[in-house]
Design brief:
The chain is α+β, with helices and mostly antiparallel strands. The protein is built from 5 helices and 10 strands; from the N terminus they run ααββββαβββαββαβ.
């Protein structure tokens, strides 16, 4: 009876060994264990650790006075800040000092700042993004409530410009509004705008998009 009782016990031990995870693991073609857990990416490796050189920005935009720039130096928070372009066309940054910004594209300014930081930072990675566009302006004069110079960011079209200027005065000739636009060769183009037609839904295309240095005249 004692010998017969040992057989079920031995059989159970064999099945237990065969069913063990150590024997059921299948090695992959490269010799690694497919059943091993995949290591997780540390939570500290966030998107903010990526090289800022891949961040999008407008490389064709020409920076002007009064624009506000976001300057970012990778892994150098003390050197990253938001700065306005002064009336002399320059900005001031830690370690860099004063540097010309007006007339440069964001990409060119990145290169200029990187060159200045070479003596202080190992392989500096600089990103320049235009946060506010204040340099692109138009003028509106004549029979409006608040004639003056305005940012294109506030009024992209003729109708927006009139609204920003407080609307027409009582005796404004609303059918005779026009825009003077200066071409690169120095010549001027006159673009008409008939307010009364526009508000009636006629010729909606005359509500043109304004360009920098346009002058709207309301007779």
């Amino acid at each position: 009876m004692k010998c017969g009782a040992e057989k079920p016990i031995r059989l159970g031990l064999v099945l237990l060994v065969l069913g063990s995870p150590l024997l059921s693991q299948t090695p992959s073609s490269d010799g690694t264990d497919r059943n091993q857990p995949v290591p997780e990416v540390p939570s500290s490796m966030t998107q903010s650790d990526a090289n800022p050189g891949s961040r999008p920005h407008n490389g064709n935009f020409i920076i002007g006075n009064d624009d506000v720039l976001a300057i970012s130096v990778w892994k150098e928070p003390d050197l990253s800040k938001s700065v306005p372009v002064r009336s002399d066309g320059k900005i001031s940054l830690p370690l860099v000092g004063e540097i010309q910004a007006t007339g440069r594209t964001p990409f060119q300014l990145e290169k200029d700042i990187s060159a200045k930081l070479q003596s202080f930072v190992n392989a500096p990675e600089v990103t320049v993004i235009v946060e506010q566009v204040n340099s692109k302006k138009f003028n509106i004069v004549g029979e409006v409530m608040k004639p003056g110079s305005y940012s294109l960011a506030l009024a992209p079209t003729v109708m927006d410009a009139i609204a920003n200027a407080g609307g027409f005065r009582d005796f404004a000739k609303k059918t005779g509004v026009y825009i003077l636009r200066r071409s690169p060769d120095g010549s001027q183009t006159k673009i008409g705008f008939n307010y009364k037609e526009f508000i009636k839904g006629k010729n909606p295309g005359q509500n043109v998009k304004l360009e920098s240095n346009d002058t709207i005249i309301v007779p």
